[in-house]
Amino acid sequence: MIAERWINCAVIAGILAVLVYALVADEPFTITLLTRVVILALAAVGLNIALGIGGLVSLGHAAFFGLGGYAMGVLASHAQTFTPLDLGFFTLPGTKSMPIIWLVAVVVSALAAWVIGLLSLRTTGVYFIMITLAFGQMFFYFSISWSAYGGEDGLSIFVRNSFPALNTLVPVQFFGLCFVLLCFALLLFHRLKASPFGLALNAARQVPERVETVGLNPMRLKLVAFVISGAITGLAGALFADLNRFVSPTMFSWQLSGELIILIIIGGVGRLMGPVVGACLFVALEHWLGGLTDFWHVWLGVILLMIVLFARGGLIGLLTGKEGAHV
Amino acid sequence: MSEPVLATHGLCKRFGALTATDDVSIDLKPGEIHAIIGPNGAGKSTLIAQICGGLASDTGRVDLLGRDVSHLDTQARARAGLGRTFQISALAMEDTVLDNVTLGALGATARPWRFWQPVTKNAALKETAMAALERVGLASDADKRTADLSHGQRRQLEVAVALTLSPRAFVMDEPMAGLGAEGSKQMTGFLDTLRAEAPILLVEHDMDAVFALADRISVLVYGRVIATGSVDDIRQSDEVREAYLGESA
Predict the structure, then answer these.
(1) Where are the beta strands (DSSP E) in A187-257?
(2) Residue B198 carries which DSSP code?
(3) CB distance A196–B125 less than 8 Å?
């Protein structure tokens, strides 16, 4: 069986190899697809902190993805029309600067995750799944009726936002930005999982009563994990909106929440590279099978079924021969 | 007479018409093992939950080191010095043996908000954790997956996690549960040495262990303490015989 670290290296090498191929063959669309992989992986790495380590099956992570997207859409649209953003007490200018947009996306989704987590974490199991779904749907319907920012039609941003010293309109430069952010998120996941916080969170998933009797608060551990998780997924949302130069309520849809969970399950729950492997497979299927048939989701379903039935550790678990992501 | 480390005053708990805990006042003095015995359904687990904080009492008070802890939650009572072990091992089965005791050591520091440094690189945590494993004889199994331990080893690990907290009082819910004769003897020997460190409130079904260890025994029947006394007192009490021990004792 193959050690997990070699698989992890191979996945990163594989992504970079495809990038080199796309550059050599001059296929900018392949780079765009690859950027899509990286952004979806980033969103799922965020979810993997809550779901993989903390055991929090959130079916509402699209809320954070969408909030990140709308943070970008709102700020950029005001910059685009040169109108200030009126927040009631004061007004803010819009911006096309990615670092500022990312910061806003992270802060807004972290705040939302804190509020949603505070309320949802009172429940467990299927109730937790349902209440997070309900929160996600609240944001979805709000965005549909939010006519100031396009309502159901969404919001187009004509030019991709800017990053100091880079030309983000060049696909490979935007890919590079997303890829670096993904690497940072993976590093954070890796360190967090092995940290004292990760140990306590991992125990809170398995035996909350034990965590309490050693004097720690399992609720608070899970809440912090949920906030970090939501913030990363929010950042991915801002990037996703910039990739498409378009924001719409579909970013808030529950299908997206489900897809993020599917990505993690395909790759391997709680594993560092699980979301990345899942995102690669997902986008590949979406692209190739989607080109052949509109019903490509059926085949995704078949793959998911196979993995759930025969490879509980996901594709990475299958290769390492270890079912659990822990130990 | 020395001040009790842990004491309950008139604890009551009702579930509808059922009185699970009925005016229970017991105490635990420094250096002693106080055993709580009673037939199934006597309310032992309810009493433990009330003492440790999982269950709010209808009336009554729990004092730890002379301080009323009745309104503290489980975490706060643990930090105040209550070391609890579970009847059914509550361990993180997917993790290693060392991870489980490290969790205890981490709880003792009350500082879980460290997100970057690997826990394995933390010398202080590791030292506390390994010391506890050493004492229960599990040091050589530190890197094993907890799920791969035998039942007896899990019972030992359960005690080791409580040790990492350096509690002021132990509350142990059937530490001998499911242990064979040999394991039970070993655990009895260990608990015997432990009382010098902190007194133990011991809920146990294994009568050999109770009679070997206890300085005092309280008998709980239908949520009420019907007798408290030395091992000999309890052995000779007619009321206790009738209610609990039966003719065989």
Answers:
(1) 246-247
(2) S
(3) yes
Name the band, by pLDDT with cuts 50, 70 and 90, for residue B243.
confident
Contact of A60 with A134, CB cutoff 8 Å: yes
| Interatomic CA distance for residues B62 and B56, integer angstroms | 11
Number of residues written out for chain B:
249
CB-side neighbour CA atoms (13 Å) of A56: 36
Q: Over 80: is that where the pLDDT of A325 sits? A: no
Contact status, residue A215 vs residue B165, Cβ threshold 8 Å: yes
Mean pLDDT of chain A: 95
Identify which of A242, A241, A264 has the alpha carbon closest to the alpha carbon of residue A317.
Answer: A264
Q: Which tokens is B134 given? A: 């050493």
Inter-chain touch B94–A209, beta carbons under 8 Å: no
> Which whole-number Å values give the CA distances from A319 to A8, A53, A311, in the listed order?
11, 21, 10
Q: Which helix (H) or strand (E) holds B130?
A: helix B123-136
**Per-residue pLDDT reduced to its tens digit, A113-124:** 999 999 999 999
Query: Residues of A with CB below 8 A from B106's CB?
Result: 196, 199-200, 214, 216
Characterize A118-135 residue by residue with b for buried, 16 or more Cβ atoms within 10 angstroms of its Cβ, and e for exposed: eebbeeeeeebbebbbeb
Chain B residue with the nearest C-alpha to that of A205: B92
Query: What pTM did the predictor assign?
Result: 0.94
What the block records as the tokens of A90 is 């004061």
Per-residue pLDDT at B248 exceeds 70: no
Which tokens sit at A104?
């806003």
**Terminal Cα-to-Cα distance of chain A (whole angstroms):** 16
Specify whether the CB–CB gap between B91 and A207 falls below 8 A. Answer: yes
Which residues of chain A lie closer than 8 angstroms to B164, CB-CB? Answer: 214
